[in-house]
Amino acid sequence: MRDRKSIAVLVALAFVITLMTAVGASAQNASNVHPVQVPQGVKQKVQGVVSIRSGDSFKVRDPGGAETSVLLTGATKVTSHNRGLRGKKDYPVTYIMRGLRVQAEGRGDADGNLVADWVRFDEQDLRAAQALEQTDELAQENQARIAAAEQAAQEAAANARKMAAQIEETTAIANDARAKAEAAQATADKAFKDAALANNRINGLDDYEVIRTIPVLFKVNSSILDATARQTIDAAAAWAKGEKDKGNANGWLVEVVGFADTTGNTARNRSLSERRSKAVIQYLVGVHNLDLRRLVQPFGFGDSKPVASNKTAAGRAKNRRVEIRILQNKGIAQTSD
User: For residue 284, which of 246, 253, 328, 259 has the smallest C-alpha distance?
Assistant: First the structure.
């Protein structure tokens, strides 16, 4: 039961971390982060992911890496986005937490902070951020268990050294003490090895490698799956099922990313690429019963990442695509020898 619980914790941790980071992993790389000042008295709206929460302030980082400091006051209104006829739902400021995607509007103060009049977020994003906070706590508990195992190994090694010192007292005791010391050392070595393996697995939870990339092509200005596109997805699903039956799908996630050629303007292409990625996901879920827990949130890059030249018809055809990327979490996939 304890092993099952540990595996469940690792799977949950890997999923949530991937979910939150994949929303804009390349755009929100820490190396691109730069602070943004809000002019004093100027009304401004910001949106992005909460990167830091401290007291009555937090920082919002947008996909381009711009980070704005937001201050909360007693007058700040915190709500969900409009939910149709039910309207918005009010929340206390404590619901603003790291990893939550928000919108905020207010005016700049003398220090360049945005003093928020209101903050809004999607309730689905709130649940994801809460899950991230819980799995962070579970990860800390696992690290505490690893530290306890290392301490136990050190104590075992100390006992072994004490036994070794007693060997020198008499020749009669030496043989018996030597056997005990060797057994204790073997136990210590195994404990150290187990602790090292646990550390490697924890450290590898945010490390993924691409197992396979399947391109699904679309027609000009279209996000509809034609017969060829469906056949491509069906073949990929059959391959994935075969790998799962072989036991090779441990720690797998599916990342679906849309792209477009340079036909049309950039904003329209970005929206088109997102619709394409959602069309592929709907087919994977609706036809092939893809487990939603293994799915990374879709994203559309528009025409920003071509794989071929947009100057030729053949190149543009390759760029009108959705990439289904099969990722494997290295931390979950690791096994002991």
Answer: 253
Q: Distance (Å, rounded) from C-alpha 248 to C-alpha 288?
A: 18
Spatial separation of the C-alpha atoms in residues 318 and 257, rounded to whole Å: 14
The one-digit pLDDT tens for each residue of the chain (337 residues) are: 545 545 544 444 444 444 445 444 434 456 689 999 999 999 999 999 999 999 999 999 999 999 999 999 999 999 998 776 677 889 999 999 999 999 999 999 999 999 999 999 988 888 888 887 767 666 677 777 777 778 877 887 787 788 777 877 767 787 887 888 788 788 767 655 654 444 544 444 467 889 999 999 999 999 999 999 999 999 999 999 999 899 888 889 999 999 999 988 889 999 999 999 999 999 999 999 988 888 887 788 888 889 999 999 999 999 999 999 999 988 766 654 4
End-to-end CA distance of the chain: 22
Selection from 285, 299, 288, 296 nearest residue 208 by Cα: 296
Provide the residue type at 120 as one letter: R
In 3D space, the residue among 272, 271, 259, 270 whose CA is nearest the CA of residue 315 turns out to be 259
d(CA 191, CA 19): 33
Picking from 143, 118, 138, 141, the residue whose alpha carbon sits closest to that of residue 195 is 143
pTM, rounded to two decimals = 0.40
